[in-house]
Amino acid sequence: MNGWKVLRNNLKLRPWWMNGLLFFCTYMTFVYVPWDFFVKPVAEDAEVWFGILLRGWAAKATEPLHWLIYCAGMVGFLKMRPWMFPWASLYVVQVAISVFVWALLDERGRGLIGATISAIPFIVLAIALWRAKAKFSNPTNNKD
């Protein structure tokens, strides 16, 4: 079977929005985080955890954990691993909380309404991931 057919068949295992998450995790795993970690100067480095901005060496030190998370997401979505439920959904809930806190603490001051609006897409995504439990537990999706 040629590579394009394998890819096309794999993409049929999940809905379009989940393929988007797969591609996002793949991009972050192979392009953005390696560039951020190995190329970006420490003085320019920034990472956000739970809505708190880390800069410099603190950011650089926590990047491997983000890298691991994106790599796990990529493998989990690619192979539709059962362990992705509930962890993908719970991680996105954490992102929603982080976005909310970030918007509240940001000096540009979006306030409570702006913070709530910023978090809503991630809450919707977390619910969609939670409701997709069957996609991750279907044995036909987990062939190697």
Report on this structure:
By secondary structure, the protein is mostly helical. The chain has one domain (3-142). The protein has 6 helices and 2 strands. Strands 1-2 form a two-stranded antiparallel ribbon. α2 packs antiparallel against α3 (57-79). The longest helix has 23 residues, at 16-38.
Q: Provide the domain count.
A: 1
Mean pLDDT, to the nearest integer, reads 92
**β-strand amount:** 5-15%
How many E-type strands?
2
Query: How would the global form be characterised?
Result: globular
Biggest pleated-sheet summary: 2 strands, antiparallel
- Counting helices, strands and paired strands, the structural category is mainly alpha
Neighbour order of strands in the largest sheet: 1-2
Give the ordered list of helices and strands. Answer: HHEEHHHH
Notable features of this structure?
single chain; 144 residues; mainly alpha; two-stranded antiparallel sheet; 6 helices
Helices and strands in order:
Elements: H1 3-11, H2 16-38, E1 46-49, E2 52-55, H3 57-79, H4 84-105, H5 111-131, H6 133-137
Helix pairs in contact: 2-3, 4-5
How would you concisely characterize the structure shown here?
With 144 residues, the protein is mainly alpha-helical.
